[in-house]
Design a protein that fits this description.
Elements lengths: L4 H5 L3 E9 L5 H11 L5 H13 L15 H6 L6 E7 L2 E7 L7 H8 L4 E7 L6 H12 L4 E7 L8 H18 L4 E5 L23 H7 L5 H4 L4 E2 L2 E3 L11 E5 L4 E3 L3 E5 L3 E10 L2 E3 L1 E3 L3 E6 L10 E4 L7 E10 L5 E2 L3 E6 L2 E15 L4 E4 L3 E2 L4 E12 L12 E5 L6 E7 L5 H7 L13
Parallel strand pairs: 1-3, 1-4, 4-5, 5-6
Antiparallel strand pairs: 2-3, 7-16, 8-9, 9-15, 10-14, 11-12, 11-16, 12-13, 12-15, 17-23, 17-25, 18-22, 19-20, 19-24, 20-21, 20-23, 24-25
Helix pairs in contact: 5-6, 6-7
Length: about 450
């Protein structure tokens, strides 16, 4: 690919993206091709892949081995863990999460896509849209990943036929629209041959869109978190109590959303007490303002009882606190989640006791229908739950903030993660339904 002087002069931005798809759809090969063709692979890494490929009797290097790092992954030819890779082009920096395709590892996609700006969902051109494709599309919609790319892979095995690509793209786009995905970019590729991954394909002159890398380099990263009301979860209270700083009391944490400014009136939650920001320290240097995702220490004009887990927010835009949490969840543990289950709920830096009061419905991915009152959730199930917490929580709606609207449920017995939760409405169509005058009650507990 050629890069103009103007493009090279532009400041680079960061894009976090995840890959997903059914098993053997070619996710790891796509990632390997991206790294290889964008010249992001070190010579010794490529030599190691060539040796491993030769040991398996392959004539050409298997680029999937660039990401399949676990021995079990290489032996089985599958992805098990979420593999993170970092690379850059002159136009943008990337953090990539290659997520597993097997059904039993679907929960790992929640981890990989939870912070992603974009998700690339692969489909085997020979198989089309399958159940796991629909599951990954539902998770991307549920997590409100801003951008979705459908990469129809292995086009070389269907003679680069445009009708095959068009039929798959139409089916997936229609399904994604039902989930409320605002826009899907579709690209026909062959990760193995390199068609439309980094370089345009010579075999598909009927396709006039961007390659995968071109789209990744040019897709708009909104930076929505900067425009949200400020949220500072307190991680640590700094009190040196030394002769030099006898009265110093600072509240350290990473700003989760928005920006804070000296002199601004803030409210501390869940207590509801107010004060003004006296100082903000960034890397030990006083500043007038700071924004997400910077880590700062904030001092207030008043001595308030503040501890780890409290939330500092602007008084005019502070979230409401509640002990009744309605959310959409993806269950990630092997052990089931049942009504009456006692759990720990972790939101930001705060951990509180909670109980699962009700599981109103579970989503069936085939036709997006509801299974009412399932009673319990198994691994990878997506459902609506109602929780009651022992203490008030300052939860934002996940639709408004992916950072401060998310939480996890933890097993109090061993500390393992049970469930990933998104507070409030689930899919984007809930907002569209509200605008059309419908209520959530019309949908028997689901949000479309």
């Amino acid at each position: 690919m050629t890069t103009t002087a103007e493009q090279a002069a532009e400041p680079t931005t960061l894009l976090r993206f995840a890959t997903a798809g059914s098993v053997d759809d070619g996710k790891s090969t796509l990632v390997g091709r991206l790294l290889h063709d964008s010249k992001s692979v070190l010579a010794d890494q490529l030599e190691a892949v060539e040796r491993a490929s030769a040991g398996r009797g392959q004539d050409a290097p298997d680029l999937a081995l660039l990401t399949d790092g676990l021995r079990a992954e290489r032996e089985q030819g599958i992805t098990i863990d979420v593999a993170y890779r970092y690379f850059a082009t002159p136009r943008r920096r990337f953090i990539l999460a290659d997520t597993p395709g097997h059904v039993q590892y679907t929960r790992n996609m929640v981890t990989g896509a939870s912070t992603a700006d974009l998700t690339v969902i692969l489909v085997d051109a020979r198989n089309g849209v399958v159940e796991q494709t629909r599951r990954h599309a539902a998770i991307a919609a549920l997590l409100r990943v801003p951008h979705v790319v459908l990469a129809v892979n292995k086009m070389d095995l269907v003679d680069y036929a445009e009708p095959v690509f068009a039929a798959i793209a139409e089916e997936f786009t229609a399904y994604a629209a039902e989930l409320g995905v605002p826009e899907v970019t579709t690209v026909p590729i062959s990760a193995l041959a390199g068609d439309n991954v980094v370089e345009p394909s010579a075999h598909m002159d009927w396709y006039g869109g961007p390659t995968v890398l071109e789209h990744l380099e040019t897709v708009r990263v909104d930076g929505t978190v900067d425009r949200l009301p400020a949220r500072l979860p307190v991680q640590y209270v700094i009190r040196p109590q030394t002769a030099e700083h006898p009265d110093y009391r600072g509240y350290a944490g990473q700003i989760a959303a928005g920006s804070l400014r000296v002199g601004e009136e803030v409210t501390v939650l869940p207590s509801g007490r107010t004060s003004r920001i006296a100082d903000i320290d960034l890397l030990g240097v006083p500043v007038e303002s700071a924004r997400a995702p910077q880590s700062v220490t904030v001092r207030l004009e008043d001595d308030l009882d503040i501890s780890r887990g409290d939330l500092i927010a602007p008084s005019q835009a502070a979230p409401a606190t509640t002990q009744d949490v309605e959310a959409t969840v993806c269950h990630v543990a092997d052990r089931p989640l049942t009504e009456g289950h006692r759990v720990l709920l972790k939101h930001g830096t705060r951990v509180v006791k909670a109980v699962v009061k009700e599981i109103p419905s579970r989503l069936t991915l085939d036709d997006l229908s509801l299974h009412p009152r399932p009673g319990q959730l198994a691994a990878n199930d997506i459902a609506r739950v109602v929780l009651r917490t022992a203490e008030p929580l300052p939860l934002d709606a996940y639709a408004q903030s992916r950072t401060t609207g998310a939480f996890i449920l933890i097993d109090p017995a061993d500390g393992s993660t049970l469930t990933a939760g998104m507070a409030g409405d689930s899919f984007a169509t809930a907002r569209q339904a509200a605008e059309a005058g419908r209520t959530a009650a019309d949908d028997d507990g689901w949000d479309f």
